[in-house]
Amino acid sequence: MNIVSRITNLHLRHPFKIARRATDASRQVVSVEIEGSIGETAPARFYGETVETVRFALETIAPALKTNLDAIHDVMMAVETTLGGNYAAKSAIDMALHDRLGKKLGVPLYQLWGLNPQKTPCTSFTIGLDEPERMAEKTRQAEAYPILKVKLGTPRDIEIMETLRGVTDKPIYVDANTAWTPKEAVRKIRELAKYGVALIEQPTKPNDLAGLRFVRENSELPIIADESIKRASDIPALVGCVDGINIKLVKCGGLLEAYRMIHVARAHGLNVMLGCMIESSLGITAAAHLTPLVDYADLDGNLLITNDPYTGVTLDKGKLILPNRPGIGVAEYSKAHKD
Ligand code: MG
Asked: What is the topology classification, in CATH, of domain 112-338?
């Protein structure tokens, strides 16, 4: 099977910083085309993938795509047998196969899964790390979004939250991106709870599940795992350590595995957030089709860039509005804005 791939530089509206990484001004994604259908992935170095490893993986995987492409389960199993890891690359293929099947059947993705498009949640909008005053300014600019996700993980965390509460009373999710020790996390979460924070994402190191459990047992806010969780098979070990998980297509290998993870998480009594990387409206819209099944959506990657090549999912006061065109349902931005 021929897979056409292309690298796109997405330019960020604001330089983007989180606790464990330097500031980025742009981010690269890889888009793929299979039989006229499309997918996209945003590889993360943290998970050992780059645009180069994605392209190499796509070349390696392509010969495995010779079975009936409608049987996405079978195809993705063949892909898994051909090449381990490389879940960002696999996510792009999985996405294009879902787009293809939706188009072939003439239905949007949410309908493939029998989901109610009215049941989408509001997405949160991310405020990256910066000087407290700059973060307050970005918060003011985020007026259109009813829920904020604030990146923390610095010595000034409480000062930042105090400054932000001076300019907004919206619900706030906090993401520490692995920056705190367990004891530090307990101390900070106690303070943050006073500022009406709704949940805490990944307070501690990814592999320190005992640390997560300690934080959860000593904190009143819900704890959501992100860097600690990639695939469905990681979920049982997290039971008792967290209250929920953040699923991302590029971590787990695509929509099929994400769907599986949602149900495995539910079976273990966990809440579910569907998150993203810096992605265009192609990747974000594909993920958005699954959101009628989740508690929290953090699908703002397309809102953080200035050169989105696509239009797809839109927002109504923050609520995700799914396109009802077949497949993922995105259009190229230039074509959608011709008139
Ligand atoms: Mg996170």
From this structure: TIM Barrel (3.20.20)
